[in-house]
Every structure is written in structure tokens, then in C-alpha cells.
UniProtKB/TrEMBL annotation:
Keyword Transferase set for record: yes
Protein name, per record: Glycosyltransferase family 4 protein
Species of provenance: Niastella caeni
GO molecular function, one term: glycosyltransferase activity
Keywords: Transferase
Keyword Nucleotide-binding carried by entry: no
Lineage: Bacteria, Pseudomonadati, Bacteroidota, Chitinophagia, Chitinophagales
Glycosyl transferase family domain segment(s): 184-347
Domain of life: Bacteria
């Protein structure tokens, strides 16, 4: 009797994600996720991109063209669910704002064909949205029923407790290791780096005001503002610096990517992100990788990344005075800067590499496919 070889079918995973452009933290992580070289050996994979906006200005806006694209997307999704028959659907749902209604509709369609759905939450604000409207709370609970949810940090799990009863998975972002050593800094004026889009909610105005205060106090520094303008034009930033008498100390240079961005990180002594709202920003992880102490606001998942006084300093959002005080602390103490930089690099390598992210996400997929939900 001939031996029959049975070919085990690999689980099929459908990724529904927004990919670049535009380039921001969520699209970068989504690209990392679908590009994982380890998927091919374990799963059959297919990606259905959410391409409704091409620029940062498009985010969150509903237009007739987007509505037309949505109709086409639903037809493509329906066809893939019928033909590909995914074992698991991974969806980076937007659970707040007007876009949530779109994603709730997408989820309801997926649930008709697939029982294993993983929501990876890169946004916060669910609790506020649920508490502001009974209708939205009902729809959120219905959408989150029967799915597995991934939060980016322990602190962010509180945001979904109103609508999601099981314990969510916790998986922090991870990024590629591009720096294999801590850069030795020079002995000149300490260099402060703001590396993020020029958005008021990112605290760009607060940062510039803090620089003006540091200059008035006689502190030596040189600052670089690197990022694409969104609701705060580059010209406005330069005009503020000129009026405050710090134009010679602050370079506002627009966005940089790849090796050019890494060069900015290599030259920085202090990294700043004074956002009003965040989850787990990739820019902080990038700074930690390069051994740079971080000064950031205590919002979202940032307190889970930064240990105040160990690998960085935490400040309250919206206070240029507190920010300038913390920056001054590092400007005047080179030893503390260097030690925090070493600690930042060590913590990055322990928790926030792309390899650790891939291992964590694979583990979650395996548990969900086996029907093991957090309870």
C-alpha cells in the first residue's frame, strides 16, 4: 500500500491595513507587519490595503472620492472573503471619529465569513467616545464583540474597558535596528531634536516657546525641528523663532526620511516630543535606539516606555515652563544625559526591536487561531 502524504494546509491570514502614503507611525508599523519575512513559512497571507487618503491632510476627512473608493473596497473585500476564505483577519481598525463608522461596517462584513478577527489598536479615545453617546457605545460594543484586541501598552488597555470585557493582548511597537552602537556626542552646545510632523497636537508650539525661555535664561543649545508641516507651517515656525530672537539657534528644515533621518538622530543629544495625545510613538523608540535621552509628555503609552529619571524625563502636556525646566536639567548635566542615553538604548534592545514585535504578533496569532481568547 502506497504511503499517502498529507499536506497540511497553512492558516490563511488577511491583513486589512493602511499602508504608506502618507507616512506616519501607523502606516509605518502596518508596513512592517505585512513585510514580516516569517509569515510565508507559517501562513498563506494576503493584504488588502486601506487606501482612502494619500496625504496627512486627508486623514479623518470624508469626501465623495473616498466614498466611491469605499464602495470598490467593499466589493474587493467581499470577493476575497469568498475566494481566499481567511482563517484570521488582522484589521487595524480606527475606533474613533467618523472613520469608525466605516470600519464598523467593514467589521460586520468580515464577521459573516470569518470567526477569528484581530483588532490592532493604534489610536486612543474609545472611552471618551463611548461615554459621550449611548448610540456610539452600543455600536462600539457590538463591533468589539467576538474579536481579539491588541493594545500598544498596559496603560492604553484602560481606554477600551468600557466596550471590551476580555483582557486585551498587549504588544508594544517595535522598529528595525539600524544603529548597532551608541553614538559618541561632541563637546559643543547640546543639540535638541524635535522629530515629528509639525502638528499643534504634537506640541510644536510648546516646544518653540520652551526654547525661547531657555534662551532667556542663558542656556547654551542648538535645536533642530524636523518634520512635515500639517497644521503648523514651516514659515510660521521660522517667524516665531525670529520674533523670539532664537532664529540663529533653531533650524526648521522640514521632513527627513531614511539615512537622512538617522543622521539627525546621530547628531542629537536630547530628543523632545511634547505631544498632547499619543499611543506609543515610533519617534521615541528611534531616539532610544540611538542612545538619546527623551523628554516627553506623560500621555498615552509613553509612561510605559519612559522611566522618569532613568531613560528620560516626563512632563505634563501643555506646559512650556515645565518643559524648559526639564530640558535645562539635561542641558546642564552632561553626565546625566549620557547615562540616560545608555539606559534608553538598553531598554530599546530589551523591549522594542522589530524582532520582538514579530515574535509577539506571531504568538498572538497562534493563540487566536487555537481559539484561546484572553478572559
Amino acid at each position: 500500500m502506497k504511503k499517502q502524504t498529507i499536506r497540511m494546509m497553512k492558516p490563511r491570514i488577511l491583513f486589512i491595513v493602511q499602508l504608506p502614503p502618507p507616512i506616519h507611525g501607523v502606516t509605518v508599523m502596518n508596513q512592517y507587519t505585512v513585510d514580516n519575512p516569517g509569515w510565508q513559512s507559517k501562513y498563506e497571507v494576503k493584504t488588502l490595503p486601506l487606501h482612502f487618503g494619500q496625504t496627512l491632510d486627508d486623514i479623518g476627512k470624508i469626501t465623495p472620492l473616498k466614498m466611491l473608493h469605499m464602495v470598490g473596497f467593499l466589493f474587493r473585500l467581499f470577493r476575497i472573503l469568498i475566494t481566499f476564505k481567511p482563517s484570521l483577519v488582522y484589521f487595524t481598525i480606527v475606533p474613533t471619529g467618523k472613520i469608525f463608522y466605516r470600519d464598523a461596517l467593514i467589521t460586520s462584513l468580515i464577521k459573516r465569513f470569518c470567526r477569528c478577527i484581530v483588532f490592532h489598536l493604534h489610536k486612543r479615545g474609545i472611552e471618551e467616545m463611548a461615554n459621550n453617546s449611548r448610540h456610539k457605545r452600543w455600536l462600539l460594543r457590538k463591533t468589539f464583540t467576538g474579536v481579539a484586541a491588541i493594545c500598544l501598552s498596559e496603560k492604553l488597555t484602560a481606554d477600551i474597558r468600557t466596550v471590551y470585557k476580555p483582557d486585551p493582548y498587549v504588544l508594544p511597537n517595535g522598529i528595525e535596528v539600524v544603529s548597532t552602537r551608541i553614538i559618541k556626542r561632541n563637546n559643543g552646545a547640546p543639540r535638541i531634536l524635535y522629530l515629528s510632523n509639525l502638528v499643534k497636537s504634537k506640541g510644536i508650539e510648546i516646544f518653540l516657546h520652551s526654547l525661547a525661555e531657555l534662551h532667556q535664561q542663558g542656556c547654551r543649545f542648538h535645536a533642530r525641528v524636523v518634520g512635515a508641516p500639517v497644521d503648523y507651517p514651516i514659515e510660521q515656525a521660522k517667524a516665531f523663532c525670529a520674533a523670539a530672537g532664537i532664529a540663529h539657534l533653531v533650524d526648521v528644515i522640514g521632513p527627513k526620511f531614511g539615512p537622512d533621518k538617522f543622521e539627525e538622530l546621530e547628531l542629537a543629544d536630547i530628543f523632545v516630543l511634547p505631544s498632547f495625545t499619543e499611543c506609543v510613538p515610533l519617534s521615541i523608540l528611534e531616539a532610544m535606539q540611538f542612545g538619546i535621552p527623551v523628554v516627553a509628555t506623560s500621555v498615552g503609552g509613553i509612561p510605559d516606555i519612559l522611566q522618569d529619571g532613568v531613560n528620560g524625563l516626563l512632563v505634563s502636556p501643555g506646559s512650556s515652563q515645565e518643559l524648559s525646566e526639564r530640558l535645562k536639567q539635561l542641558l546642564l548635566d552632561k553626565t546625566a544625559r549620557i547615562q540616560m542615553g545608555y539606559s534608553a538604548r538598553e531598554r530599546f534592545m530589551q523591549k522594542y526591536t522589530l524582532e520582538k514585535f514579530y515574535d509577539g504578533l506571531t504568538g498572538i496569532f497562534e493563540q487566536v487561531l487555537k481559539g484561546k481568547m484572553h478572559n
